[in-house]
Design brief:
The structure holds two protein chains of two kinds. Chain A is mainly α. Chain A has a single domain, classed as Non-ribosomal Peptide Synthetase Peptidyl Carrier Protein, Chain A. Chain A is built from four helices and no strands. Chain A has helices at about 5-15, 20, 35-50, 65-80. The radius of gyration of chain A is 11 Å and the shape is globular. Chain B contains 15 helices and no strands. Chain B has helices spanning about 5-25, 30-45, 60-80, 85-105, 120-135, 145-155, 165-175, 180-215, 220-250, 270-275, 280-300, 305-325, 330-350, 355-360, 365-385. In chain B, helix 1 (about 5-25) packs antiparallel against helix 8 (about 180-215) and helix 8 (about 180-215) runs antiparallel to helix 9. Chain B has three domains: about 5-175, no CATH class; about 180-250; about 265-385, no CATH class. Chain B is mainly alpha-helical. The chains are: A mainly alpha, B mainly alpha. The interface of A and B includes residues 41, 43, 55 and 56 of A.
Amino acid sequence: MSVTETVLKHLEKFSGTDQVRKDLNIDLFGEKLLDSLASIELVLALSEDFGLDLAPGEIEREEWATPQKIIDYFEARVKQG
Amino acid sequence: MTPYTSFLYFGISLYALIPAVIFGFFKRFWKAWLVIATAFMLVVQYSDINNEKKSVLPGIVLVLGYAVLQWLVAIGFLQIRKRGVNKIALYVALGLSILPLIVEKVLPFFEQQSPFVFLGLSYITFRSVDVLLGVQDNLIKKIDPLQYLTFLLFFPAISSGPIDRYRRFAQDWDKVRTKEEAVQDLDGGIHRIFTGFLYKFILAVLVKQYWLDPAAEIPGILGTLSYMYAYFLYLFFDFAGYSAFAVGFSYIFGIHTPENFNLPFLSRDIRDFWNRWHMSLSFWFRDNIYNRFTFAALKGKWFKDSQTASYLGFMLTMGLMGVWHGLALHYIVYGLYHGALLVLTNWMDKKYKGNRLLNDNGFFWQALSIFITFNLVAFGLLIFSGRLF
C-alpha cells in the first residue's frame, strides 16, 4: 500500500468521514475532523504501519494541518528510514 | 522595574527598540543587538528596589544564575541523550529543571517564601522544559549557548510570556530578514504596542475603576455576579494588553513570539475557548502534558478504552494547570473544573454526534453556545478569583 493510501485509510477511520480523501487540503483541526485524541491515535497507528518510532513531540498541529501535509511528512520520514 | 507598567519603562525601552529597528532595516548587527538589548533590559527589569518579591540575592543575579543552571541541565541531558534513550536521565533533568518552581509554589503553603523567587520564574521554566522534551524526542540535536540563553531570557516575554518554543524561536534566530520583512515586523510591532496601550492602560483601568472595584464591595449574589463579569473583562484586557506589548516588542526584534489571545469571547465551547485564551500556555500544556500522557497511555495500553485515557489526560492537564497558579484550593478547583468541562464537552460530542449546540452553524445555536460558554468560563474565573472560597 502506498504512503498516501495508508495515511488516507487511517485518516478516514479517525475522522469518520471521506472528506479527507476528497479534499487533501482540508483543514483537519479547523474543520473539527480531528480532535486531540484522534490525532494521537492517528500518529500511533501510522507509526506502527510504517514501522517508525515517532515521538509525541512530532505531532505539530501546523505540520499536520491537512491530509496532504501528513502524506508529505510520512513520505519524507519513510525515505529517511 | 516591572515591564509595561510605567511610562518610565516605555521610555527606557526605546533605547533597546530604536536601534533594533535601525539594525533590522540595514540587516546588520541585529542578532548582536538582540543579545545586547536583552542583557540591558534584564538589568533594567530586575534592578528594582520596589520589587514586591523579596529575595536573598539581587534579581538580576538570580535570573542569570537560574538561566545558566537550566543551560547546564539542558546540555548535560543532551550529551546523555546522544548516546541513546535514558529515561532516568530525563526524569533527573526534568526534576532539576522544575525544582525551583516547585519550591516557589509549595513554600507559601507552609507560609514561607522561597528565597530564590524572581518575576518570570515559571515562564522561564516552561521554556526550559520544552527544550528538555525536544531533546528527549530527538527533535533538538544541538544547543547553542547564546541562542539558548536569549531564548530563555528574551526580555519582552520573560515576565509573563507568551511562552515561545525553542524550535520556533530558532527559526527566527537563524533567519536574515529582508528589508520588507523588517518593515512589516515594525508595522506589526507598533500596531500591537498601541493595542496594548488601549487594552491595558485604558480599558482594563476603566473596567477596574468603574466596575470591578465597586462590585467587590457589593455583598450577595448580585454583587458576586457583577464581580464575575467584571473580573473576566478585566483579566482579559489586562493580560491581553500585556501580551500585545510582549508580542509587539518581540516583532521589532524579528522574533515572532506566539499570540496569547484570539477573540476568546466568541468561543463556542470549552475546547474552542482554550484555543483562544492564554493560548501559548494552553498549547504548552496540550503538547507537553495531554499529548504525552495520552500517547504513553495508548502506546502502553494502560486502559481498555482510549476515551478513558483521553479523559484522564484532560483532568491531569487542567489539574496541573490549576496547581501551577498555586496550591490554594480555589486554583485546584479551577483546574479540575476546566478538566471536567473538557471531559463533558468531548463526551457530549461523542454521545450526541452532530449535536446542534456544538455543531449547528445557524445564528441562534451559535449565539446560544457562545453565551453558554461565556458564562461557564466567567464562572470558572470567579472560582479562580478566590472570591467564593
